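Example 390, ligand manganese (II) ion.
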Amino acid sequence: MTAPRLDGITDTLARQAIELPSWAFGNSGTRFKVFGTPGTARTPQEKIADAATVHELTGLAPTVALHIPWDEVADFAALRAHAEGLGVQLGTVNSNTFQDEIYKFGSLAHSDPAVRRTAIDHHLRCLEIMADTGSTDLKIWLADGTNYPGQDSMRARQDRIADSLAEIYDQLAPDQRLVLEYKFFEPAFYHTDVPDWGTSYAQVCALGEQAVTCLDTGHHAPGTNVEFIVMQLLRLGRLGSFDFNSRFYADDDLIVGAADPFQLFRILHEVAVGGGFDEGSPVRFMLDQCHNIEDKIPGQLRSVLNVQEMTARALLVDREALGRAQAEHDVLGANEVLMDAFQTDVRPALAEWRAARGFPADPVRAYAESGHQQHLAAQRADGQQAGWGA
Ligand code: LRH
Ligand code: MN
Ligand code: MN
C-alpha cells in the first residue's frame, strides 16, 4: 500500500487546536495513592510552562484550561502575560464546586439557598477571572447528586439547577459561553443531577444561545454509542466542546485514543461530517486527562498526537464513496470505506508534514532526546509538587 497523501486535508490539520488541562501537569492518582513524578510542576505558572512546551513541539496546543481554585493566583492578568510570553493563551475556565465541605449535599442544586448562593458566587468569580485571562468559555461540571433513592427530590433539584444556571448565564459577556458538562455517575452513585447529554441539552436550551454542552468521552456507561451523541448535538447546534480522554472501566482519564482508538476515529468522523472541523466552527477540543504513572509532558504530547493522527484518518474517509454505498444500501461496501480510512497509517505522512512546517517529525522522541525532563527534575527538586487539585 502506498503512503497516504494528505494534500486535501492539511488546511484542516493546520487549524487544529487542542486545549490542554493545567491539571494534567500536576500529580494525580487514585484514592489508593498519588505517586509523584520527578520534575512535576509546582505552581500554575509551571503548569503553563509545561503546556507551552507541548505546543512548541507540536503546534497543536495553543491554549491552556484553568481549574478554579486549583489554579488560583493573586493576579490573573499577570498569569495571562506569563502564558502569552511563553507562546500560549489561557483558555477555558473550569469551575469547581465539588471539594468544599459545604458542597457535601450539592452546589447549584442544594436545597439551602445559602449554599446555592456560595456556589453561584463562585461562578461569578470565575467570570471575573475570565475577564482578566481573556477566556471565553466557562465550563461547569457539577458533582451534584444523591446516593440513595428518596434522599432528595430529583425534580426539585433540577429546578434549582435551572434557576442557579440562569443567574450565572445572565452575567455572561456577549462573546462568552456557558458550557455544561454531563457525567452519568461519580461521585454520586444513585443519581447525578446532570447525568446525560439530554439533561445538559434541556438545561442549556432553556438558558439561551450562549449555552452549549460539553461531551467528556469518559462520562458514559460502557457500550454507549458516543458518536451518536456527537452527531445529535452537532445536528442540534449545541456541541460546545469535548473533554477527550479514554477509559476501560469508568472515568479513567487515560490518554485519549489509548483504550479504544476506533471509538476516537468514529467520533472524529462524526465531527467531520457535522462540520465540526470547518473554519469558524464553534466546537472546541480539549483534553481532560491525568497522568498517574507516566511523565506528564510526554503524556500530553502523545495525547495531542493521537488526536491529530485520528483526525487525519477521519478526514481521509472518502465521503463521496461512502454516500454512494449508503444510497445503494451496500452494507459491506459502506463499512469498507470507513474501515479503509481507519486502517490507514498516517504516521509517516504526518511526520513529513510536521518536519516541513519546522516541527520535530517525532515530537515525543525529540522531547526525550532534549534532556528537558531531566532539567525539570533538577530544577524543581525543592518545594511542593502540584497535585490533582492544587
Ligand atoms: C469530572 C471532570 C470535569 C472536571 C474534571 C477534573 O469528572 O471530567 O471535567 O472539571 O473532571
Ligand atoms: Mn471532564
Ligand atoms: Mn471526568
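Summary: The beta strands are 18-21, 63-67, 89-94, 137-141, 145-146, 177-181, 191-192, 211-216, 239-244, 284-287.
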